[in-house]
Design brief:
Distance between the termini: 32 Å
Number of helices: 15
Radius of gyration: 22 Å
Shape: globular
CATH topology of the largest domain: Aspartate Aminotransferase, domain 2
Structural class: alpha/beta
CATH superfamily of the largest domain: Type I PLP-dependent aspartate aminotransferase-like (Major domain)
Bound molecules: 4'-deoxy-4'-aminopyridoxal-5'-phosphate
Strand order of the largest sheet: 4-10-9-8-7-5-6
Length: 446
């Protein structure tokens, strides 16, 4: 593979396409368990878990043989009206059983997280048409939130960089402040007070727009791409109450948090809340075959199934909705998630890793915050610890630390001024120690 092949023909998602841009690229040739190997054969602990998705580790024989068996039987089948295949029914039943406690009754499939969000937004609109309140079209979401890159997800996203090059976007998308203790507009450090501020703002915003114009509130239980922002424990329950009072649908974007990453099977379940709509992807098939799913509770399913006129007709879906290989992979992945109790492992090993990372905040002037829940963690780098001034990501410190860690055998992700850690949920305590030790060494080289 020559440099021209590597750099000229392929535009990296989320990277610069500038003519002179020649950032370094790691070319990964192989994965096994919690490890990846580059084309030169260097073995690295995959502390990003692919892209927060390889939850059961790489190269699992059970998943590979399930995909191979399915490939022999039926490699593709559509699932539009009137056609299906056994695996799509099995997976739909399995998901409804797993999320029975949340009253999830119906599922629609797509190819990834952005599809899952787009489906959620469009079906939320359809719900309100079916329910006889078609004026409810707006969406509330959070600053720093990330909901994928389709036009809907881009429009409700809480980081401007994903919007700058693609406007105009969907009208009626309203951002609320993030329940983030480390940085919030009220400079509030008390979790309960912060929840009160955020909920007060949510209620004022609903009053301003009128509940009768708002379709849904959507958020990640723990924000991922925005920098691993864990809300105070009481936040989600309070949001659920506001939604109930105002009739607004609650959509949990569990694309990262679903299937155990935060220490419970769903991030929302970990906060004791049942959403109306669930967006799932990533961990559902652990990266083996692309898959996304959107699930609907009884309230939504019942209204759509009993809608008048055209409102019960689902004019949404993809060629690859319910792809047989993806369904087969997901069934095998979910067997592993349940058999190996990976949500519990994520909670236990994640807590251990958090405790090992926390001292870095005392030891290094640049480490302003260490945070996380389960196996979703981040270090935030600052220019001035007392003032919490963010380190300018143009200085490249996070990128250099990630590069040093990689050379020492641990693959982490630099996102602006944050170092993000989201390993497979099969991570061991010893491997957690390796991540913490390597990051300390990498920080020492700065
Ligand atoms: N929602 C969330 C919360 C995500 O983190 C992501 C991807 N990181 C998406 C949606 C979009 O998923 P995909 O990249 O599979 O389209």
């Amino acid at each position: 593979m020559n440099d021209q092949q590597r750099q000229k023909r392929f535009w990296h998602p989320m990277g610069s396409a500038a003519a002179g841009h020649c950032g370094s690229t790691v070319v990964i040739a192989r994965g096994d368990g919690n490890y990846i190997f580059d084309i030169e054969g260097h073995r690295t602990l995959d502390a990003v878990g692919g892209l927060w998705n390889v939850n059961v580790g790489h190269n699992r024989p059970e998943v590979k043989s399930a995909i191979a068996r399915q490939m022999d039987e039926l490699s593709y089948c559509q699932t539009f009206d009137g056609v299906a295949h056994p695996r799509v029914y099995e997976l739909a039943d399995r998901l409804c059983a797993m999320f029975k406690q949340e009253d999830m009754q119906r599922v629609m499939f797509g190819s990834g997280g952005s599809d899952a969000v787009e489906t959620a937004l469009k079906m939320a609109r359809q719900y309100w048409i079916a329910a006889g309140e078609p004026a409810r079209t707006k969406f509330l979401s959070l600053r720093n939130g990330y909901h994928g890159v389709h036009f809907g997800g881009t429009s409700i996203g809480g980081s401007g960089v994903f919007q700058y090059n693609h406007g105009p976007l969907l009208p009626g998308c309203v951002l609320l402040d993030t329940p983030w203790l480390y940085r919030n507009p009220w400079r509030c450090q008390d979790p309960d007070e912060l929840v009160a501020h955020c909920i007060g703002q949510m209620e004022e915003t609903i009053a301003f727009h009128g509940a009768h114009t708002i379709a849904a509130f959507i958020a990640e239980p723990v924000q991922g791409a925005g920098g691993v922002i864990v809300p105070p424990a009481a936040y989600w329950d309070s949001v659920r109450r506001v939604c109930d009072r105002s009739g607004i649908l609650l959509i949990a974007d569990e694309v990262v948090t679903g299937f155990g990453r935060t220490g419970s099977m769903l991030g929302s379940r970990g906060f004791g809340v049942a959403p109306d709509i669930l967006c799932l992807a990533k961990g559902i098939s652990a990266g083996y075959v692309p898959l996304g799913a959107t699930m609907f509770n009884h309230r939504v399913a019942h209204a759509i199934e009993n809608g008048d006129g055209f409102s019960h007709t689902i004019m949404h879906g993809y060629t690859y909705s319910g792809h047989p290989l993806a369904c087969a992979a997901a069934l095998a992945v979910l067997d592993i998630v349940e058999r190996e109790a990976l949500p519990a492992n994520a909670g236990r090993v994640g807590q251990h890793l958090f405790e090992r990372l926390l001292p870095l905040k005392r030891e290094f002037e640049t480490v302003g915050d260490v945070r996380g829940k389960g196996l979703m963690l981040a270090l935030e780098l600052v220019a001035d610890k007392a003032g919490r001034t963010p380190l300018d990501s143009a200085e490249g410190v996070a990128a250099r630390i990630a590069e040093t860690a990689r050379k020492r055998g641990v693959f982490v992700r630099a996102m602006t001024n944050k170092i993000v850690i989201s390993p497979p949920l099969t991570l061991t305590l010893d491997e957690a120690d390796v991540i913490a030790r390597t990051l300390r060494e990498a920080l020492q080289t700065e």
